[in-house]
Amino acid sequence: LDNCWLGNVISPNTSVDSLLIFRNNNVEGYSITLQQLTGTDAGAIIVDNNYVGHITVQQASFVSIKNNGVSSPTGYAYDFNISNSKNIIVENNRMRYLKLQSDTLVDVLSNNIYRSQGGAGATYYGVYAVYSSDILIDSNEMNIRNTWGGYYAYARDIRIHTTRNVLVSNNILTVYSQGRVNYEGHNMGVSIENAASTNITVKNNTITNNGGPSVRYGVYIIGGDSIYVKHNVINGTNINKTGQGVLLQSVVQELELD
């Protein structure tokens, strides 16, 4: 489909078997859901240069999501979700959230990811990778803000959970959570969690934490193995607030900080 005005688009469970291209369409405020839930993986799915709300792709052997956003040059599309897919590139989009689940061979490049929202007990992410492998997250700008002024306000720019072979590099990361009192909320630039998260490198990033009384962490590591944190700039806008530049806990064997 090219140069169309569309509402919600959804493919049947077995309909994407070769090449599917969405380019230069206006789907702003609506969703594109492309899936191959039964049988072998879909062939190639290309979603480029659209005005869009949400994008969901499931079980594809090649995925390209580039240059998507909304009609306002200062606005952002909503959530992008990719699962059970491989050979993925997500580049130069304006969005508020990217989730990768059970994916492999992924490049996340030069995206602008922004979210500012208040939610009691909610955790807001920029990029969340879970049960995935072989991921490059490079040259993105993220600003994730949980503006909830009560208890339990959480925000993270990048969360890596039960995922291996990841390089997080050259990103500009800003994270904010308001909260109410210490230890009743937190924000994290990069979090790495679970013993199965292995061979993770975080280097050459600029991470800025700010917010209310919530606890701040530049890089938060709990679990994992073969973790390398190198040459990052970690800024706290108020050094009198509670938190750590780098928190380390329960790393299985190998860890390097430089």
Rg, Cα atoms, Å: 18 Å
Number of strands: 26
What is the overall silhouette? globular
State the helix count.
0
Low-confidence stretches: none
Q: Which structural class is indicated by helix and strand composition?
A: mainly beta
Fraction of helical residues? under 10%
Helix and strand run:
EEEEEEEEEEEEEEEEEEEEEEEEEE
Biggest β-sheet description: 10 strands, parallel
Strand order of the largest sheet: 1-3-5-7-10-13-16-19-22-25
Classify the beta-strand content into a percent band: over 45%
How far apart the termini lie comes to 49 Å
Let me know the average pLDDT: 90
Strand and helix layout:
Layout lengths: L8 E2 L8 E5 L2 E10 L6 E7 L2 E8 L1 E7 L12 E5 L2 E6 L2 E2 L1 E5 L2 E6 L2 E6 L5 E8 L2 E6 L2 E6 L6 E9 L2 E6 L2 E6 L7 E9 L4 E6 L2 E6 L3 E8 L2 E6 L2 E4 L6 E7 L5 E3 L1
Parallel strand pairs: 1-3, 2-4, 3-5, 4-6, 5-7, 6-8, 7-10, 8-11, 9-12, 10-13, 11-14, 12-15, 13-16, 14-17, 15-18, 16-19, 17-20, 18-21, 19-22, 20-23, 21-24, 22-25, 23-26
